């Protein structure tokens, strides 16, 4: 199933079921794509307006970047499902004998790395999206700033959601040096970009109230 192309109600129904995918990672990618699109919407409502002629070129550039990020995040819904399947199978491998235990441990290290790679990428894309939303909020149409604020909140949620999918996998890794390297990257993104998202939200809130 192409989870990025099914109807919204179908995606939500499958998400609510006991099916292993989509899960938190795929849902985070979708929320990130929606958040990015909300920022992009601000750009769409800004271009072509005489009042914002001085930022027209910049808005088109931001919109182009947002277009790419939206597609990449939607693709990551599918990728997250793809990397989870081998992980689920690995958890079910037998470990009765020493040989089976060793083989399971070997396979687990491989699939855990793959399972971490997608939520890490989702996090990175959400950070990129938040950088764009900062600009959309600051320079875009004042009539659409609420959408920029919602976009920032969504991208923050997607960032935090994806981080939990990183941490649950690094927790199981035997290679602690590699696990800590990933954790530190995730920590750094959370520290910088949740703060940035909050700043956008507070700024928008202040302009609306």
Helical content band: over 70%
Shape: elongated
Unreliable stretches (pLDDT < 50, length at least 5) are none
Secondary structure tally: strands: 0
InterPro entries: Cyclodeamin/CycHdrlase, Formintransfe-cycloase-like_sf
GO molecular function: catalytic activity
Organism: Lientehia hominis
Domain Cyclodeaminase/cyclohydrolase: 8-187
In words, what does this structure look like?
The chain is mostly helical. It contains six helices and no strands. It has helices spanning 8-16, 24-44, 56-91, 98-139, 145-170, 176-208. α3 (56-91) packs antiparallel against α4 (98-139), α4 (98-139) packs parallel to α6 and α5 (145-170) packs antiparallel against α6 (176-208). The mean pLDDT is 95.
Q: Which key terms come to mind for this protein?
A:
209 residues; mainly alpha; 6 helices; Formintransfe-cycloase-like_sf; catalytic activity; Cyclodeaminase/cyclohydrolase family protein
């Amino acid at each position: 199933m192409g989870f990025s192309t099914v109807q919204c109600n179908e995606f939500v129904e499958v998400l609510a079921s006991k099916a292993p995918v989509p899960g938190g990672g795929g849902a985070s990618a979708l929320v990130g794509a929606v958040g990015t699109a909300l920022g992009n919407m601000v750009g769409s409502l800004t271009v072509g307006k005489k009042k914002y002629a001085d930022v027209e070129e910049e808005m088109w550039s931001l919109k182009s970047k947002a277009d790419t990020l939206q597609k990449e995040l939607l693709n990551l819904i599918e990728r997250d499902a793809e990397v989870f399947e081998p992980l689920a199978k690995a958890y079910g491998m037998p470990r009765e004998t020493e040989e089976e235990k060793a083989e399971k441990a070997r396979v687990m290290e491989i699939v855990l790395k793959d399972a971490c790679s997608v939520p890490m990428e989702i996090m990175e894309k959400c950070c990129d999206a938040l950088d764009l939303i900062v600009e959309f909020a600051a320079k875009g149409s004042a009539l659409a700033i609420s959408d920029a604020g919602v976009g920032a909140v969504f991208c923050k949620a997607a960032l935090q959601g994806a981080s939990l999918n990183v941490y649950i996998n690094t927790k199981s890794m035997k290679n602690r040096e590699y696990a800590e390297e990933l954790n530190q990257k995730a920590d750094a993104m959370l520290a910088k970009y949740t703060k940035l998202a909050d700043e956008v939200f507070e700024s928008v809130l202040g302009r609306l109230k």
